[in-house]
Amino acid sequence: MINLKSAFNAFNQKKIIIVGDVMIDTYLNGGVNRISPEAPVPIVQFKSRDHRLGGAANVALNIKALGAQAFICSVVGKDEDGDLYTRLMNDNALNQRGIIRADDRITTVKTRVIGNNQQLLRVDHEQTDPISSLLEFSLIERVKEIADKEKVDAIIFQDYNKGVLTENVIKTLIEFANENDIYTTVDPKKENFFAYSGVTLFKPNLKELKEGVGEFFEMEEKDRFAEAINKLREQVKAKMTFVTLSEHGVYMNAEDQHYFIPAHLRDIADVSGAGDTVISVATLCITCNLPPKSVAEIANLAGGLVCEKIGVSTVGREQLMSEVLAL
Fold it and tell me: To which H or E segment does residue 156 belong?
C-alpha cells in the first residue's frame, strides 16, 4: 500500500535543480473600447503592467510551492531586463547561485498585450542561438557545484529552444547525474529532442512526440501511437516515457508496463504553465520512489488543477495532497 501522505510530506526534504531557459513574462493590461483611426487595430487604454518569472523559472516556482527547495541554473543578460529578472527572483525568495549573467546574451522577455481580459498581441524579445562554449563550461560547473554541495535529488531540464540547453550541456549533465544517482527529468523541445538519452523521465506533449519521431496520427490510431512510443524509447532510452495528451489525459510507459490515464473533468480557464506543473510534480513523486502509474496519476491531476486558474500559476502541496487523497 502506497502511503501518499508520507510521500507528500517528504517533498519538504527534496532539493531540485532546474536547468534551462528562463524568461520574464510581462503583461500590459488595459481596456478596449475603440479601433485606431491609423490602422484596423484595437486601442488598448493602459491600466497596469505586470512582470512574472517564466520558462524554467516558473518550474522553480512550482517546485517551491510544492514545499521543496529549488535551484535555477541558467544564463541571462547583463541588461536592464537581467536586473528585473534578478529583482523578481528576490521577490519570490528563489536562490540565485545558479544564475550566470553574460555580456553577450540578452534576457528573454515575452510581452503580452491584454485588452478586456483577452490577449491581443505578444511581442518576444529573445536570443535563440546556442550559448558559447565558455558559458557552457561555466553553467555545467555551476550545476555540478550546487549538486555536490546541496546533495540534490533531481535535475529538471526545461527546454524552450532559447540556446541555454546545448547538446554538450545536456549530455554532460545527464552523465554526471547518472554517475551520482541523481534523477533526471526532461520537458523537451524539438531542437535537442534526442540528446536526452539515458534520462529517468522524458515528458513530451503529443505535438512534440509527433514532430520528434516524424509520425503524424490521430489519437484514435492506437497502433500508430504505439509505434511512435517505441521509436522514442529506442532512441531516448529513458526509464519512463510520459506523454501529456491534453484533453485525452496522459500516457506513461515504464518497466514494460503502460498506462493511459484520462483527463479529469475541470473548468478549464487557461492551459498556460500546465506543463511546468506536470514536470514539477512528476519529478518530486519520482524522488519519493512512487511507482510510475502513481507518478502519472498525480501529475495529471496537478496539471488539471492549474488549468482552472487564469494565467501562469502554481499548485500548492496542501491543495494537491487534499485532491489526491480525496480521489
Answer: strand 154-158
All cell numbers assigned to 113: 498585450
For residue range 174-220, list pLDDT tens digits in order.
999 999 999 999 989 888 999 999 999 999 999 999 998 888 888 88
The single-letter code of the amino acid at 177 is A
Q: Are 221 and 182 in contact (CB under 8 A)?
A: no
**Range 254-259 contact pairs with CB under 8 angstroms and sequence separation of 24 or more:** 254/292, 255/292, 257/292, 257/293, 258/229, 259/292, 259/293, 259/296
In tens, the pLDDT along 146-176 reads: 999 999 999 999 999 999 999 999 999 999 9
Sign of the torsion formed by the C-alpha atoms of 302, 305, 306 and 307: positive
Grid coordinates standing for 45? 487604454
> Regarding the domain with residue range 4-326, which homologous superfamily does it belong to in the CATH classification?
Ribokinase (3.40.1190.20)
The sign one gets for the Cα dihedral 271, 276, 279, 283 is negative
Convert the pLDDT of each residue in 31-79 to its tens digit.
999 999 999 999 999 999 999 999 999 999 999 999 999 999 999 999 9
| Burial of 279 (C-beta count, 10 Å sphere; 0-12/13-18/19+) | buried
Which positions are annotated as active-site residues?
276
Q: Is the overall model pTM greater than 0.85, yes or no?
A: yes
> What's the confidence (pLDDT) of residue 301?
86
